[in-house]
Amino acid sequence: MSRKYFGTDGIRGLVGEAPITPDFVMRLGYAAGKVLAGGRSGTSRPTVLIGKDTRISGYMLEAALEAGFSAAGVDVMLAGPMPTPAIAYLTRALRLSAGVVISASHNPFQDNGIKFFSEHGTKLPDAVELEIEAALDQPMSCVSSEKLGRAKRLDDANGRYVEFCKSTFPNELDLHGMKLVVDCAHGAAYNIAPHVFHELGAEVIAIGNKPDGFNINLKHGATAPAAMAEAVRAHGADLGIALDGDADRLIMCDANGRLYNGDELLYLMVMDRLATGPVAGAVGTLMTNMAVEVALKEKGIGFARAKVGDRYVLEVMKENGWLLGGEGSGHLLCLDKHTTGDGIISALQVLSALKRAGKSLADCTKDLVIFPQALVNVRVTPGFDWTKNAAMVAEKEAVERELGNSGRVLIRASGTEPLIRVMVEAREEDAAQSMARRIADKMAA
């Protein structure tokens, strides 16, 4: 059964347009309260934790969610602006029924969304999201007054999470002597990430740390890493760390401003683990650069591809019993450190690897020769099925014949926007670009 509202990362859209409206979000809170907390065992009242990023619409949606949960008889704890992975951690640490994050991640401020975590701090499986969607189709009611949920603030959320992040960094190491630029994307980590790296000993230059409700991800963060690279060069910093609006993505750069994406950082983390013991395997996605697969298999390390989306990476990791996985966009998972992707914790794993190796980012990744990838996004009407476009299918097959074993083609629909993404990977950049454009042009033919 297909999902009506949930995409690859919760429910997301333009604020004020269905489904991101106050009335829908209130009904969503009620439905989720019934599904996630209604069957809770024991005598304690079910409680959910709500966090958000720095978008102006977060206040409105938080109030709507709170009302919905209260009507379902669920207590609410409000964490305020917090990274998505912080809500996952705190939900698990506080033994709560569920966690909810109000965020559209890397999207501009006009968008917003809702995503859920289970009591174990993991993304909800498709089956539970389908249950919530089914509950949304039922009339909303309200428990009796004596059973209404209460709401309170979690005042020490920031401090708890800062300490958790620091606990994932080796006790025998520190960051003394390192100058780091930390770009918080004017997002949820603005008052957290700089403290983590500073308290571990680094000199921190924080940028993108002045949110005003409208500037989240604007010319800053993991989706606009040029600001980080420029600041690194301007301040003579050793490294740059760029997070996205909800701080579950990580992009880094070295002292020269050279950027390192999630594929390269995943490879570095796997190599660091391999230096101290065997690594059974790692998980990427359909978009992961072919070079990662080739490099890992040459070292006898298993590699599997999941559908795009960190939730699907996590599913394949669990199926294989592997600890490391990620996406080129910067979602990186270390299951022995956290239950979900976490930009701050991923950065700490990279920093600890560099400290142990005594090498630079460039030296630690020099054996990974990235295949050029060309990605063309084509805006389409919702529900567009590219597989029924005969000209596009024929062009895809023609390109695949030309590439042979020296590259690949991937066409997929975005899970968060009405886009078809055409990706071609080849050993030569010009070939990849022209082939991707050839396929995309057939969509409009």
TrEMBL record:
Cofactor(s), names only, from the UniProt record: Mg(2+)
Annotated ranges, domain Alpha-D-phosphohexomutase C-terminal: 375-441
Isomerase as UniProt keyword: yes
Binding annotation for Mg(2+): S105, D244, D246, D248
Posttranslational modification: Activated by phosphorylation.
EC number in record: 5.4.2.10
Substrates-to-products reaction catalysed: alpha-D-glucosamine 1-phosphate = D-glucosamine 6-phosphate
Phosphoserine found at: S105
Domain called Alpha-D-phosphohexomutase alpha/beta/alpha: residue spans: 3-138, 160-257, 261-368
Keywords from the UniProt entry: Isomerase, Magnesium, Metal-binding, Phosphoprotein
Function text: Catalyzes the conversion of glucosamine-6-phosphate to glucosamine-1-phosphate.
Family of the protein in this entry: Belongs to the phosphohexose mutase family.
UniProt protein name: Phosphoglucosamine mutase
Organism name: Duganella qianjiadongensis
Lineage: Bacteria, Pseudomonadati, Pseudomonadota, Betaproteobacteria, Burkholderiales
